[in-house]
Amino acid sequence: MIEVVAALIWRDGKFLICQRPANKKRALLWEFVGGKREKGETLKDALKRECFEELDIAVEVNDVFCEVTHAYPDVTVRLTLFNATTSDEPKMLEHNDMRWIFPAQIDEFEFCPADKDILNLLKQRYC
Predict the structure, then answer these.
(1) 48-53 contacts: CB < 8 A, separation 24 or more?
(2) For residue 47, what are the domain limits?
(3) CATH at 22
(4) Is the pLDDT of residue 127 over 90?
(5) pTM to 2 decimals?
């Protein structure tokens, strides 16, 4: 099982989503910014590193929003989604696209399957 971290970053009632690059697995699907935890990293440190590497932002990692485990055909991931904040403006260093969306817009985007339960929770809480 792979440990994956992601950030739920809010701004003006919207949260940040990123579209995976065309050359990676689950190409062009939408997701939260984040990635794999490296050996020796805490989950929070991994998320700070991933946000910096992918979007050139410094984040303050807060509490856990939720955790999910998902089995893809090629890998099983345990995803921990943290509430996070930033005052930096994200830059697309790795993703194909990024958007700030309202929870009511979730169904307009095709997300990675591992995010399904998270998205349902967001819709329940904020729609």
Answers:
(1) 50/5, 50/7, 51/7, 51/84, 51/86, 53/93, 53/94
(2) 2-126
(3) 3.90.79.10
(4) no
(5) 0.95
